[in-house]
Amino acid sequence: MDYVVEMLNIRKEFPGIVANDDITLKLKKGEIHALLGENGAGKSTLMSILFGLYQADRGQIRVNGKDVNISNPNVANELGIGMVHQHFKLVHNFTVTENIILGLEPKRGLSVDVKSAAKRVKELSEQYGLNVDPNAKIEDVSVGMQQRVEILKMLYRNADILIFDEPTAVLTPQEIEDLMKIMRNLIKEGKSIILITHKLKEIKAVADRCTVIRRGKFIGTVDVDSTTKAQMAEMMVGREVLFSVEKPDKEAGEVILKLDKVSVKSNREGVVAVKDFSLEVKEGEILGLAGVEGNGQSELVEAITGLKDIVSGKIFINGKDISNFSIRERINSGIAHIPEDRQKRGLVLDYTIGQNMVLEIYDRKPFSERGLLNHNAITEYAQQIVEDFDVRAGQGVESVARSLSGGNQQKAIVGREIELNPDLLIAVQPTRGLDVGSIEYIHSRLIEQRNRGKAILLVSLELDEVLNLSDRIAIINSGELVGIVDAKDTNENEIGLMMAGIKRGDTD
Amino acid sequence: MKQSIMKKIPKELVVSLLAVVLGLIAGALFMLFTGNNPFAGYSYLIKGGTMSIERLGNTLATASPLILTGLSIAFAFKTGLFNIGAPGQVLFGGFCATAVALSVNAPKPLLLLLSVSAAALGGALWGSVPGFLKAKFNVHEVVSSIMMNWIAYWVVYYAIPAYFKGSFLETESRKIAHQASLRVDWLTKLFDGSYINLGLFIGIIAVFVVAFILNRTVLGYELKSVGFNRHAAEYAGISVNKNIILAMMISGALAGIGGAIIYTGNAANLQIGIVPTQGFDGIAVSLLGANTPIGVLASAIFFGLLYSGKGFMNAMTNIPPEIADTIIATIIYFAATSVLIERGLDKLKRKRRGN
């Protein structure tokens, strides 16, 4: 059997942790090989070794059957290994072509020969069905298109072995479909692909084989066709995983949140992000807000929580008009908010977990009295959240928030917000970037909140999440409400169409 | 909480001490290059600041305003602001204190309370302007507070000759009465006629007050939240704008009190046309003290020693006094690049563990 890449018995230690312990990964020519593992399992370390960013302490790497020593990314490039990073590395006010040739500009005399480069880019784009305009500026194209530019960058450098690092994290469902097609095209043209992911669905859809690692250890390589999702999940997590959470039927009660023709301006000058948006969220229900990223969800949430002023309309909580309330007054009226960006909004990274757990309530008794903090009460309260929500941190509540892994930071925020016991919980991307174990846990806590008669507004780009958790689903497109459907009698297809702005019934 | 602090302090202490040692080594090299004996130089430098009870008092007196300006900068740093306007706040605070000292007649304790309060208010006013501009219009505080330095400079330049002209010179105010001075007889006697004054105690009290505010109060929690991550603070409903203005006012008040110590304690009048260097030195004091109140106290005394010893070193050797300033500058340089020292330490540790 021909292997294009063989990573044999790789070991890599960092101070205090073994990131990779005797891991073997063999990539066949012309296959899509998934690399599956939880957050922090060691996937990125392994791939960084292959890409020359780290050196392995032990083990061998062979490319096309030959032993190689990949001492830096340039060596990897020469060996035909290319990587599409999760966070794109593009210059925004450059064109597609300018970005692709950056670093190896073709010269004619003293000037850069952009024209012939653009021609080459166009040829490559057509060959692989990428449909990229070589002369478009990066800032004008969609996220999915930017990713294709990253792919083109590798192809332009004649890479044969392509590493995709969590490529679907930033894409819409339609863009994911397109990406899958592109990956299949690449295989057809003789490339080989390593796909780093923790999404089982995508592995099932596109990969041939799958290597699973857990806590730095090699668990096994399986054939995707003959392995079920549940089996792979169990290999990854080390225990059985429930995919859909038990959700008893529940009659929704009184209206908790009422939006009445709310309009919000966008962060960009002169653009309206949310237009005349009306919505009700009731007690004992999870209302999912589905939409393609950047269609006004963020602005709507900021308007409800008070981070952004509304232009017109009214917002009610429990029948009380809170349109002009300050952020703190809204929190005190019973709104909790799991923010979209945990590091920007959710945590003060230089504070300890303990200090972070009282971010909204430090001025209440018993955490402070007459302007003085009560550190013991704060620690005790935080301790409870850390235990209840299984936040893993080296020094417990004394750990600086920055030192926690993303998943544990997220669990801490979710814990803090649920512990506020809010009437309305706004959960924005509550499981972004988390592994199945943590996702399962956070989902069950959200459902528990619902069962206790609280209202939850769930905003997520993951359609599966919205479909699984919600009782009703509202779809937003260009800041307008396209429609509200019952989660029980809809499907991914219908919602996908509505996300594109096509109303129910229009398709008949 | 205790555990993390215990673990933190040694590392920061080591970094600061290394900065000092590196600065002293650099100074020794300068002395060698100028043909002098560094051991003699340093021994005179230290003797100059400590060899008699009077000199010791002068060292502490020199350190007193630096404690306040160091605290001022450190407080601003902790709340995410760079208060480079301390010189202006010192000057205007000192002017307010001098004005009160020269125009109010009251018993000494009351008069001192009034003049120091006036200094704090003046400094707070001078700090509040950049704070307000930052909060409302997002004007960077470095730019606006440097402007405020010059406004203070020219206000004092005009106001002293116009209202408080000295008896001989146009360029300085009248001397303040002993009754209005922070100097007290028992302290002067205790230190053999040194110009040490109550400013030292004000400084020490300020250290504890600032530490208390930052670590134990709701106010400190809010200020630090805004300083560390204003987006998260806003999300949690903490008023970012209010806290920025408040932080600049407190920082300014601290510097202003430093001004009172300089002009109504260490000195007895205010000379125009001079930007008080203690304001800028506060930056160095704060950096070397790792922006912690206790660290500021220690590093202010160290700087006080360098400043008061350099004259003696100059008198006893051929080492130019600029060398002392060069050493100070080098230490500032190492303290400011403490990240590099820290990284070096980490590397060293890792290597040792690796082998």
Automatic annotation (TrEMBL), chain A:
Domain ABC transporter positions: 5-240, 257-503
Primary site of residence: membrane
Gene Ontology cellular component terms for the protein in this record: plasma membrane
Localization (cell): Cell membrane
Membrane topology: Peripheral membrane protein
Family matches, as SUPFAM superfamilies: P-loop containing nucleoside triphosphate hydrolases
Listed InterPro entries: AAA+_ATPase (IPR003593), ABC_carbohydrate_import_ATPase (IPR050107), ABC_transporter-like_ATP-bd (IPR003439), ABC_transporter-like_CS (IPR017871), P-loop_NTPase (IPR027417)
GO molecular function annotations of the record: ATP binding; ATP hydrolysis activity
Keywords: ATP-binding, Cell membrane, Membrane, Nucleotide-binding, Repeat, Translocase, Transport
One Pfam family of this chain: ABC_tran
Coiled coil: none
Entry keyword annotation includes Coiled coil: no
Protein name: ABC transporter ATP-binding protein
Species classification: Bacteria, Bacillati, Bacillota, Clostridia, Peptostreptococcales
